[in-house]
From TrEMBL:
PANTHER family on file: BIOTIN PROTEIN LIGASE (PTHR12835), BIOTIN--PROTEIN LIGASE (PTHR12835:SF5)
Organism (species): Undibacter mobilis
Taxonomic placement: Bacteria, Pseudomonadati, Pseudomonadota, Alphaproteobacteria, Hyphomicrobiales
Stated name of the protein: biotin--[biotin carboxyl-carrier protein] ligase
Enzyme Commission number(s) from the entry: 6.3.4.15
Domain BPL/LPL catalytic: 12-184
Gene3D superfamilies in the cross-refs: 2.30.30.100, Bira Bifunctional Protein, Domain 2
GO cellular component assignments: cytoplasm
Length: 251
C-alpha cells in the first residue's frame, strides 16, 4: 500500500499501488476533515465500486482515479458534476488517442463510449458535511475490459491505442480543471450541457429507459436545463432524473 504524494496540474495527488477503492479512500478523508481538491489514484483496486452497487473490475493497467472536491457547488446541483466529468474524460481520451476522437461519445447519465462500447465510467459519491464534499470517481479501460458485462465494453489497447494510465491521468487532471472552470459552480451549466449534447450517443434516436418502477421507450430528445434526460413518446415528453438507458446498440 505504498503512497506517493505529487502534484497534478497544481492539485495535490496521492498515488497508491493498491487500494480497496479510490472513492472509498477519498470519502474517508473527507469525513476526517481533509479538504479538496485532492486526487487519489491507485494502480489497482481490490473492491472497485461501480454504479448501482455493482463491482468495477480493477486490474493493473487501467486508470482508477477519484477527485475530492470540497464545497464544489450547492449540494442540490452537484449531480451536474457527472456531465463535467464525462466531458473531461472525453477530452482526455481524445487528447491521448486523437485518432479515436471521432469514435468517442458520452451516454446519459455518465458513461463514455468508444464505438458504442463502454470505455469509462463515473461514480459520484458525496458527504453531506458540513462542509459538503463530492468525490468524482473515474475509471478508464486503458489495457483491458471485463468480458462479462451485460453491455458492450472495450479498452484503448483493443482499439489500437497504447495509453499508460499515468499519461491519461495528466490529461484528465488538466481537462477536469478546464471543465470545472467552464461549469463555474453551476453558473456555466448551459455551456456544459450544450458541449455534452454535441458528443451525446443516440440523440434523436429511439431509446429504452428503465426506471425503478417501469420501463418505456421513446426518442432521446435532449437534456433539460437541470440535466434531466428528455424522452419523447406517445404520452408526451418525460424528464428522467434517475434511470438506466439502453437501446441504439450502446451500453
Ligand atoms: O459503474 C460505473 O460506470 C462507474 C464506475 C466507476 C469506477 C471508478 S474507478 C475509480 C473510482 N473508485 C471506485 O471504486 N470507483 C470509481
Amino acid at each position: 500500500m505504498n503512497r506517493e504524494a505529487t502534484d497534478l496540474a497544481g492539485v495535490r495527488h496521492i498515488a497508491f499501488d493498491s487500494l480497496g477503492s479510490t472513492n472509498a479512500e477519498a470519502l474517508v478523508r473527507a469525513r476526517t476533515g481533509e479538504r479538496g481538491p485532492l486526487w487519489i489514484t491507485a494502480a489497482q483496486q481490490e473492491i472497485g465500486r461501480g454504479r448501482r452497487g455493482k463491482e468495477w473490475a480493477s486490474p493493473v493497467g487501467n486508470l482508477y482515479s477519484s477527485l475530492l472536491l470540497t464545497d464544489p457547488a450547492p449540494q442540490a446541483i452537484a449531480a451536474q458534476l457527472s456531465f463535467v466529468a464525462a466531458l473531461a474524460l472525453h477530452d482526455a481520451v481524445a487528447d491521448r488517442a486523437p485518432h479515436l476522437g471521432p469514435l468517442l461519445t458520452v451516454k446519459w447519465p455518465n458513461d463514455v463510449l468508444l464505438g458504442g462500447a463502454k470505455i469509462a465510467g463515473i461514480l459520484i459519491e458525496a458527504e453531506s458535511g458540513p462542509p459538503f464534499a463530492a468525490v468524482i470517481g473515474m475509471g478508464v479501460n486503458c489495457a483491458s475490459h471485463p468480458a462479462d458485462t451485460p453491455y458492450p465494453a472495450t479498452d484503448l489497447r483493443t482499439a489500437g491505442a497504447n495509453v499508460m494510465p499515468e499519461m491519461l491521468l495528466r490529461a484528465l487532471a488538466a481537462a477536469m480543471q478546464a471543465r470545472l472552470a467552464q461549469w463555474d459552480r453551476g453558473q456555466g451549466f448551459a455551456a456544459i450541457r450544450s458541449a455534452w449534447l454535441k458528443r451525446a450517443a443516440g440523440l434523436g434516436q429511439d431509446i429504452r429507459v428503465r426506471l425503478p418502477e417501469r420501463e418505456f421507450s421513446g426518442v432521446f430528445d435532449g437534456l433539460d436545463e437541470q440535466g434531466r434526460l428528455l424522452v419523447r413518446s406517445e404520452d408526451g415528453t418525460t424528464a428522467v432524473t434517475a434511470g438506466e438507458v439502453f437501446g441504439f446498440g450502446q451500453a
